[in-house]
Amino acid sequence: MQIGSRFTIGVHIITAIDYFKDMDRVNSEFLAGSIGVNPVIVRTVISSLREAGIVQSRRGSSGAELARPLDGITLYDVYKAVHSVDEAEGLFHFHEQPNPDCPVGRNIHKALNPRLANAQEALEDELRCTTLAEIVEETRQAIQNELH
Amino acid sequence: MQIGSRFTIGVHIITAIDYFKDMDRVNSEFLAGSIGVNPVIVRTVISSLREAGIVQSRRGSSGAELARPLDGITLYDVYKAVHSVDEAEGLFHFHEQPNPDCPVGRNIHKALNPRLANAQEALEDELRCTTLAEIVEETRQAIQNELH
DNA sequence: ATAGTTGTAATATATCATATTACAACTAAG
DNA sequence: CTTAGTTGTAATATGATATATTACAACTAT
To answer: Minimal CA–CA distance to B13: which of B53, B49, B67?
Structure first.
């Protein structure tokens, strides 16, 4: 069980938009080529990022742009934007039909749910610690280091 | 995208084994009734817990028992035992074919992977903070509180 | 006008979790 | 030692969901 790749695709998109902004026409086909997925997937993820106010894009006009500075975007923002995880359901899937006629069945969630929420929050807090500015900067440095 | 219910099923199993150990014959059918899933799923999860040294069970002999004290079992132990998440793959699914001919495509994982690992570790560390002794105790208290 | 792109729906495919069926291996009780 | 009942596990089916693909109207820029 894994968190879907739309999250890392979203990070890749933002990084590529910034990196290539002065060099190429960064449209969905170009991005799809860099990421290695279908252009429609790219457009779908971009739509999510647009709805979250992270990037700008519109019909007919080729290419996407960032809607706010890179240091104002965290990994958590991207994670939430692409809704890799359903907000209401939470990260952990609790078995859905514990028996209400069983004392354990109807009470265990009271003990377990707060712990699952804490674990999910720990993950999200960690994602909030990194901005896309850091990701882009480190990617640029990695590219520089290739030259040696 | 969610972490599968085998994890919470595992916690439910351990809690029920302890709670009912002096009252009922806690076999896979009984547990399946309490949890609300198929008995074979219960037996599969118990197999995982047995391989992790958390419970004891064997062919023919009805019922499972705990293999070690409840305060020596953490939520993380259960989480790992049922392999809700593949060890090698990690919690986050990185898109699999970033373009090696693109500088961003072949370098972004260097910047992103450590952050994803940190987030996963934060989640797991939080799961290590809770023992099954706490879960069982709180479940017992919740059952007690029902009487008022 | 025209060529090219986006947004989005519809559909297909792939993957994986859970459900179900089936049964040999085994235990315990009589 | 026979029998009823359970476990471990394989095989298969079902269901849910993520990603891929096709298609095209809406739109932009030239």
So the answer is: B49
Classify residue B25 by burial, with Cβ atoms within 10 Å: 0-12, 13-18, 19+.
exposed
Q: Of all protein residues, which has its CA closest to the C1' atom of C25?
A: B59
Residue A55, strand partner residues: A66
- Give the integer Cα–Cα distance in Å for B103 and A88: 38
Amino acid (one-letter) located at A69? P
Instruction: Provide the chain A residues 22-51 that lie in CB contact (below 8 A) with chain B.
Output: 33-37
Residues of chain A found within 8 Å of residue B118, distances taken between Cβ atoms? 126, 129
Q: Answer yes or no: are the C-beta atoms of A99 and B34 closer than 8 Å.
A: yes
- Residue B56, SS3 per DSSP: strand
pTM reported for the whole predicted model: 0.93
pLDDT at position B1 over 90: no
CATH number, domain B5-143, options 3.40.50.360, 3.40.50.2300, 3.30.70.940, 1.10.10.10: 1.10.10.10
Q: If you count them, how many residues does chain A have?
A: 148
Residue type, A143: I
Residue A51 CA neighbour count, 13 Å, CB half: 11
Q: Are A2 and B85 in contact (CB under 8 A)?
A: yes
Interface mutation target, options B1, B23, B41, B136, chain A, most CBs of A under 10 Å:
B1
Answer whether A16 sits within 8 Å of B91, measured CB to CB: no
CA-CA-CA-CA dihedral for B31, B32, B35, B40, to nearest 10: 120
Which pLDDT tens digit goes with each residue over A9-39? 999 999 999 999 999 889 999 999 999 999 9
